[in-house]
Amino acid sequence: MNIMHKESIQYWHNPALSGGELTRANFKQFEFDRHVHLDYHIGVVSSGCQQYTHRGSAYHLGPGLISTLNPDETHNGQSYTSEGYQVHVMSVPLHYVSQISQEMSQAEGFFHTPLIDDTHLYQAFLKLHMMLTQHQSNLSSLQLETSMMAFTTELFLRHGNVPEQTADNNNALSQSQIKEVMAMFHDDPGQEFLLETLANTVGLSKFQFLRRFKQSIGMTPHAYLKRVRLEYAKKALIKGGNVADIAHRVGFFDQSHLNKAFKQAYLITPANFQRRVV
């Protein structure tokens, strides 16, 4: 069991989650008295186990489970065992969830249960929490916003009051909208794209654009753009260009960033690929 014995808590804020807050903490003896939050709170335990009371019922939050709390819901919290626990929490502002709810034809977002057993979303949350707290320079705003919105939307679709069939009935981009967005990506793949800019280009909100793009293309805008950049990198490598220069030209932060993405996609490093084809 990998738990720090010293009790500690860290706080972060990331612009991709405007108005939100992220925490990671290690607790052994500290107990949360009964309290409420102004925002939605999503939390997971990566080691150990937390016990808490919510609306008169007792729950145990261990690895693999997700705690979901609506605003103004009274709860407490403490370690279930003497070893303590490590918890990762994200607060999601009301305005963020309200936007998602309104565009899904719902008056207000609401979690049905305070404890969710969903391995896929558990892993997705840990990955998202790490992305938002590490402040890695090679993570673009488009990637962060896309990941945040995709996770939150899926969480409410699966475990909130938002049925899939009501979500964005016109769920595909038109051919002209697709061509317009693709042209932006292909004309200058090295550009830093913002989700809001892409959505405004085709007259949609960020939420609508993300859902309709994925429905139309089968990938998120960030995943598609990443692949486009890798394809242009291959063409440039074949022409014999410098790997570091190519990385910057097609939109990767540096050569190491390109190396990782390239090997993940093609099972070979850019340098080795270039040596074999030139």
From TrEMBL:
<keyword id="KW-0804">Transcription</keyword>
<dbReference type="InterPro" id="IPR037923">
    <property type="entry name" value="HTH-like"/>
</dbReference>
<dbReference type="Pfam" id="PF12833">
    <property type="entry name" value="HTH_18"/>
</dbReference>
<keyword id="KW-0238">DNA-binding</keyword>
<dbReference type="Pfam" id="PF02311">
    <property type="entry name" value="AraC_binding"/>
</dbReference>
<dbReference type="InterPro" id="IPR018060">
    <property type="entry name" value="HTH_AraC"/>
</dbReference>
<feature type="domain" description="HTH araC/xylS-type">
    <location>
        <begin position="179"/>
        <end position="276"/>
    </location>
</feature>
<dbReference type="InterPro" id="IPR003313">
    <property type="entry name" value="AraC-bd"/>
</dbReference>
<protein>
    <submittedName>
        <fullName>AraC family transcriptional regulator</fullName>
    </submittedName>
</protein>
<dbReference type="GO" id="GO:0003700">
    <property type="term" value="F:DNA-binding transcription factor activity"/>
</dbReference>
<dbReference type="GO" id="GO:0043565">
    <property type="term" value="F:sequence-specific DNA binding"/>
</dbReference>
<dbReference type="InterPro" id="IPR009057">
    <property type="entry name" value="Homeodomain-like_sf"/>
</dbReference>
<keyword id="KW-0805">Transcription regulation</keyword>
<dbReference type="InterPro" id="IPR050204">
    <property type="entry name" value="AraC_XylS_family_regulators"/>
</dbReference>
